[in-house]
Amino acid sequence: MLFNSPEFVVFFLLVYCLYLGLSFRLQNYMLLVVSYIFYGWWDARFLFLVALSTTIDFWVGLMIENGRLQLRQWLMPAAFFVLSAVIFLGLDWTGLPALGSGYPDLGRLLNIRMLALSLAGSVAFVVLISAVFSTLSRMKDEGRRRFRCLLVSLITQLGLLAVFKYFNFFVDSLSAALAGVGIESSPLHLNIVLPVGISFYTFQSLSYTIDIYRRQFKPTDRFSDFALFVAYFPQLQAGPIERGRHIIPQLARPRTLTIEQTSRGLYLIVLGFFKKVAIADGVSPVVDHIFGSSGRVTWIDVVAASALFAVQIYCDFSGYTDIARGISKMLGINMIVNFNQPYFATNPQDFWRRWHISLSTWLRDYLYVPLGGNQGGLAFICRNLMITMMLGGLWHGASWNFVLWGFYQGAALCVYRIWSEYRGKPAPVVGSELGLSAGHIVRRLLASAGFLIVVCYGWLLFRAHSFAQIVNFTSLLISDFGDLDYGGRAPRLSALFGMALLLAMEIVQYWKADPCFYQRFPVPIRGFLIAAMIAITLMGMSNEPAQFIYFQF
Amino acid sequence: MNQLNLSISSSEKAKFRAVGAAAHTAVWIVIGLVLIDIAINVVLAYPSDPKVTNPSQLRLYFEYGRSTEGQLARMTRPDRSQTAPITLPGWYDTLEITEFPEKSSNSIVTIYGMSHAVRLGHALERTSLRLTPRIVGAPGAPTNWSYGAFLRDRGGGKSRAVVLAIMSYSLPMITTLSAATWSFDLPMPYTMDRFYVRNGQLEVVHPPFTSFEGYVAAFNDPAEWSKVRSEFAQHDTMYNSFIMRANMFDHSSLFRLIRRAYAQRYMRAIRKGILDGSGFRAESEQIQVARAIIRDFAKEARRDGIIPVVFVVNNFGYSDNLYRALEPVLKEDNIPYVSSHTVASPDDPRGYLPDSHFTDEVDDRLAKELERVILEAAR
């Protein structure tokens, strides 16, 4: 289900009304059920993967901490897992008609062979994994036991990613490499769809077990809370990648819904829709047209497409995050801030402290630091940066242009690191805008504008559909410099108005260093600002609604 | 009475204050929306003169979402000289025919269809030394309109060949009764025959009016117009009362934006119901009707001793899906055809103008192909 669809509006209104009327525990159960419905709206079969991730990591968390599972801790997840397999894999969901279009085809829905297979397979899996845990629980060396338990989680989550996201990419790359040395091969391909949000929920679940392994967090022994943490619908499909230590305590206690929180939530939802519907969807045809063109493309086309894609991906992704955070706030659950005005960054380090913060901190905590982080010499640090950013690039998709984008970002970070060392200046701290003079802010805005060019070229690498296009567009940027014969389309009117308003809002937010800057305005101005966002969003509603870009990751 | 009961605690006071502040903001949001609505209506007011068809991009933008009836009321005048030009073309009674000086005896080719067909006719005039085009067209005309026009005109009784155009973009409109139900952004009131396939045979339902005068009379008579709407609802697969019916919300520019978004979503949903990733659905009514029309068109033309040709317009972005959907009937009945995908790739924008028509060069090549097909069929 897409946030920007009429079904979601009805869905959320029902969920919210129900939520207000339920007690705290029932709220959690209800949220779990509706989260599965929300995800299953796209494809119910892949809910099995969510259930698998949930079950394994719940057990792993307890096994790392306690070295054993109590019957209650084993039974409930096992039953949940088997039931999930039967429901999500055993039933043929294509037998269900579209909403309101008739009765289900029960003969197709209830496929006895598939039901039996999924039941037998899931029971066998539970027996197998229980045997593994039983063996691990008998290990004397706690350190080794903890590590091996963590390995179970790592193998499961990364295995899911490897199979469902990277398998075809790896075999194709291997085949191409073999062909390069004259060995022809016909690689095996898996004919599978990439499950929406798999990179998000696997990383989120992994952070939980790693935090427990590092003794930074105690596992929950309430399975329903953990299942909700993994599947919580506002962030299930495109993040933010939450941490257990941040969300689970909020799920474990009654929430207080305040009018301030609801107001802020509603503002974030309006802002998110404004960014997505009015701006991102309004510039998307221009970007698609130029990147999809098979005809003549000029320097200004490439510049416009790259710059507009920078706008599109920011408004698309941060718009999704704003809506997710807004919905969550209305439910009394605070999610982490995922974007902090990334295009105001003045250098690569600053950018990664502002862009997709939940991923960059995940990569820092669980990849960069274990690799050695900032310890050691400059060459060692640069190696760590390059590995982290290239894997971060690969996280975005199974394609070499994402790896190249990661390489580019890593190289930018290394260059900046070396330059900082040479100058002996510490990297600027996020939020240091506070208390700066107007002149200082103008200088920093100019620096941001300069760095934005570096960012935009990165987005060209990210958006290009082939390596040949990267080479072609890059050579155009150099050889065709200054050719202003624009062959693209104009952005939609909603995008033009929307970009102007958003830019003004972002500058004020930057100036005030306060994401709630609008609350300082007199009420009529605040009301008018929100009304303007709603009006421009209404203009954007005529745009072809596009899927959120980060769903494909 | 206990003094404590009379006082409100400070936390409750804070709560009331917060609710008050939120309500205050909500009121100002509503005021802001009303002011924006009024400002758009005042600053970008659409001219009341129906002859003004293109006041400015912004004025048009905020006008698009007005109900079809609202737009027709603004555009329509009983007098042909005063009504909006868009209300005049496309009527069966009487057909608008473009003729050219004849190049040689028995060389006339009558082309029925939309603007792509009209452009093909002009290209034929430019490029062919032997064939003389005769064009019967209407803006955006779907194939049921074109076939209805052919049945009324039958090549003008002097054609050597007749060409029926069919286009991927307008295929969903082949089961409609009036252009007013689908030309939402700028409604055209002309009507067309509605064809059904029943027991393998083509059956026709004629529209409630077929001339501009008939339309004006019906539109200005509430009882008659109500009957027309009922007929549209019964026979026109694109009819939607929310899009069609005028109401007080026509005066709100913001509501017009909502209606426009709804209309576009509605049209997209219909389109997606017919066209999926693998092409046009063969079992859809639109494809069934299209195939039956093509078959009957060829039969009727041949009965008159005229060469039937089908001109398949594959729009940019639609691949050759339409050709593939029609190929079985074209091959089975041995009907001569020109499909644009053989001349310009539907996936390459270079063959198309920004307004979705083919470039002049492609039109010329299509005309040459049409000439070749007709001469080959004449042998």
List the main descriptive attributes of the protein structure presented here:
heterodimer; A: 553 residues; mainly alpha; 21 helices; globular; B: alpha/beta; Rossmann fold; 2 domains; six-stranded mixed β-sheet; two-stranded antiparallel ribbon; 13 helices; 46% helix
Descriptive account of the structure:
- The complex is a heterodimer of chains A (553) and B (379).
- Chain A is built from 21 helices and no strands.
- By secondary structure, chain A is mainly α.
- In chain A, α12 (259-291) packs parallel to α21 and α13 crosses α19.
- Among the domains of chain A are: 6-158 and 196-251, no CATH class; 258-341 and 468-553, no CATH class.
- Chain A has helices at residues 6-21, 24-43, 47-66, 71-90, 106-109, 112-137, 142-180, 198-213, 223-231, 233-236, 244-251, 259-291, 299-330, 348-352, 357-371, 378-396, 400-423, 438-463, 467-479, 493-512, 523-540.
- Helices cover 70% and strands 0% of the residues of chain A.
- Chain B is an alpha/beta fold and 379 residues long.
- Chain B folds into two domains: 3-43; 97-378, Rossmann fold (3-Layer(aba) Sandwich).
- Chain B contains 13 helices and ten strands.
- Chain B has helices at residues 3-6, 10-43, 57-63, 68-75, 115-127, 143-153, 212-219, 222-235, 241-244, 253-274, 285-303, 321-332, 360-378, and strands spanning 97-99, 108-113, 132-137, 161-167, 194-198, 201-205, 275-276, 279-280, 307-313, 337-339.
- In chain B, the strands form three sheets. In chain B, strands 1-3-2-4-9-10 form a six-stranded mixed beta sheet, with helices on both faces. A two-stranded antiparallel ribbon of chain B has the order 5-6.
- In chain B, α5 crosses α13, α6 (143-153) runs parallel beside α11 (285-303) and α11 (285-303) crosses α12.
- Chain B is elongated, with a radius of gyration of 26 Å.
- Chain A binds chain B through residues 258-260, 262-263, 289, 293-295, 493, 523-524, 526-532, 534-535, 538-539, 541-542, 544-545, and chain B through 15, 18-19, 21-22, 24-33, 35-37, 58, 61, 64, 254, 257-258, 260-261, 264-265, 268, 347-350.
